């Protein structure tokens, strides 16, 4: 079997209302899917995290070196592309492009062997994945507390056992909003906060100390991703577990974070950090260092499917016991017209639980008619 063609699909959809995290406002959702076709008619799908047009250009640049290669040789092809681009992209866009390619290759491999990706990655530890709702972005309204409290209560009503709040809008406002959301969801639902690296270590520590009383599951990206010393300072100062890593790439990037124990929880994005091949290696490293692994997920149903396949094989956070603590899936609940529409069978939750697909490859099928509706002009 040989690779016959590599195609990119840039997708875009307008939102009904603008949303904001600490980094700014956005009114559209975009995606970049990778389609790889073989000479045996098997097609694999992947997704790249990052700016869609730039990741598409990167995939198209490296595509010629994939033509004629055996797609089942996933590790070889990963290393070949990485080596060719090493001088120009050890992090960032090149690795994001490589991640989408790698996911598509694993999809092909699973379809070729008629097995789900999780079986080829070593076998499922679990067939059901607990998910947390990620949302609670700012809207264009004067007071965020009423609508955030209502949104949070809605996630609890849907059955989610945990949810994540966006912070990074000023320490005092963040503290007030965190308190209001905790009151709205009660004491039994897990609550995490994500600053999207809005603060320096001084402000992050101040906020952390103000919200520690609310039993915060983790404080995500408290400081910029390149500030490893800041991560360590926040981690030492707070009792809240510190999470991060969605802006880090490959096992080489995570090595220093693990060696210095800058994180309690690693959050590589499967579509950004190098794909399934690389994220399985990062997860194995995390286990060796006693660091928890919960992937960042932000994309379409392809990104969700890839993350679920990986989560199925990851070991529990805790050593073998009668009550293991399993890794959990980030399940984006913000508006995303493309997310589930492009799948023939959407990957939805039932009371906060996702069933791991057991079909070949990623276990999902792309709806090409739906795909055509979202092609960016």
Helix coverage percent of residues?
25-40%
* CA-CA gap between termini: 34 Å
What string, H for helix and E for strand, traces the elements in order?
Answer: EEEHHHHEHEHEHEHEHEHEHEEH
Gyration radius over CA: 20 Å
What does the average pLDDT come to? Answer: 97
Q: What fraction strand? A: 15-25%
Structural class designation: alpha/beta
CA-based shape: globular
Largest sheet: 9 strands, mixed
Low-confidence stretches: none
Number of helices: 12
Give a verbal description of the structure.
The protein has 377 residues and is of the alpha/beta class. The chain is built from 12 helices and 12 strands. Helix 8 links the parallel strand 7 and strand 8. Helix 1 crosses helix 3 and helix 6 runs parallel beside helix 7. The longest helix has 21 residues. It is globular, with a radius of gyration of 20 Å. The model has no long low-confidence stretch (mean pLDDT 97).
Topology of this protein?
Layout: E1 3-21, E2 24-38, E3 43-48, H1 52-62, H2 74-85, H3 93-113, H4 117-120, E4 128-134, H5 144-158, E5 162-166, H6 171-185, E6 190-194, H7 201-211, E7 216-220, H8 228-237, E8 242-244, H9 250-259, E9 265-266, H10 275-288, E10 292-293, H11 301-313, E11 329-332, E12 353-355, H12 368-373
Parallel strand pairs: 4-5, 4-11, 5-6, 6-7, 7-8, 8-9, 9-10
Antiparallel strand pairs: 1-2, 2-3, 4-12
